[in-house]
Amino acid sequence: MIWWVIILFVAGATLITVEFVIPGGICGTLGVLAVIASAALGCYYYPEYWFPILMGEFLGTIASVLLGLYLLPRSPFGKLLILGGSQRAEEGWVNETGNLDLVGKTGKVVAPLRPVGAVELGSERVQAVSEGAFIERGALVRVIEVHGNRIVVERTEQAEAETGA
Hints:
Order of helices and strands: HHHHEEEEEH
Number of helices: 5
Shape: elongated
């Protein structure tokens, strides 16, 4: 009888793994039913070993699911689900181009940066983020980075000299 328990479990674990490669629900359902039947037969005929039987079947089922997750991206169906290429800015795939002319410009804080606020750069008012420090209203800042619509500023030395810092 032990061979039927082992055969049912191996068949069930194999069907669960196959479900990841060939989706449809049939293999997975049959696999789960075979694993449950294997556990039921094992516990019925060997009641003194019920805990090791259930733990072995549980860990074996988890292993078959992990194997299926490993095989899924390598299967023909899995390759259809995964984007094969990447969209690089060098190829023209950008969400929003940043105004790189702003790098190095100085401006005045009109809404405190804690760490996000508003900065006036010339006649243009933009939303900016500080490097992490709070910058109060009226301080002078310099743009150090532009990534898309994210403008990173830092307090300038001129502003620190005026405040006596």
